From TrEMBL:
Keyword annotations: DNA-binding, Transcription, Transcription regulation
Domain HTH tetR-type, first and last residues per copy: 1-39
Pfam families: TetR_C_11 (PF16859), TetR_N (PF00440)
Name of this protein: TetR/AcrR family transcriptional regulator
Membrane spanning residue stretches: none
Top-level lineage group: Bacteria
Domain Tetracyclin repressor-like C-terminal: residue ranges: 50-163
Length: 173
């Protein structure tokens, strides 16, 4: 996955490399895409639960994790192919959504609710799904659309500051 990426993953090559058999592989995984998703979940998790006491710092911490994840060759070389497999396999799509995407979005919702409890924001007035999209969109664009713009800490800061501006509070780095 790190060297050649998703398109080079073949069951025969995998079982030979790890010294097992096709039946053993298929007892554990439905497809190479299921294996790739499992590896990505194990490597990157679902995002760190964060509570620094500051909405800005909490979102920035998560955003930095996302940028690190999307900068990693494992994700970079496998995510586009995995997304295609997800598009064609409803079962895989459901696993991806429930075990990888939803927990990450729930982390953002928890951060927003904690900020609401600290009276930083009114979480009921915030479209959390849209906030999740605003945070992820620029990272995805820079990771997979070759425009030459870097995935870096400045992007993490800019996306978080944009979200805070949208919900009407000033960032305090």
């Amino acid at each position: 996955m790190a060297d050649e990426g998703f398109s080079a993953l073949k069951v025969d090559g995998l079982v030979t490399e790890v010294g097992t058999t096709r039946p053993t592989f298929y007892r554990r995984f439905t497809s190479v895409a299921h294996l790739a998703l499992e590896i990505i979940k194990k490597k990157f998790g679902i995002g760190t639960p964060v509570d620094t006491g500051s909405l800005y710092q909490d979102l920035l911490t998560l955003q930095r994790e996302e940028i690190a994840m999307f900068s990693d060759p494992i994700l970079g070389k496998n995510f586009p192919g995995l997304l295609e497999a997800i598009r064609n396999d409803p079962c895989l799509g459901s696993l991806y959504e429930t075990q990888f995407i939803r927990p990450r979005r729930e982390n953002i919702a928890r951060i927003m609710n904690a900020a609401d409890e600290r009276n930083e924001i009114d979480a009921d007035a915030v479209d959390i799904d849209f906030i999740c999209d605003l945070l992820l969109g620029p990272v995805l664009a820079r990771a997979f659309i070759p425009v030459g713009a870097p995935l870096n800490d400045k992007l993490a800061q800019q996306t978080v500051e944009t979200v805070l501006t949208l919900i009407g509070i000033k960032a305090h780095p």
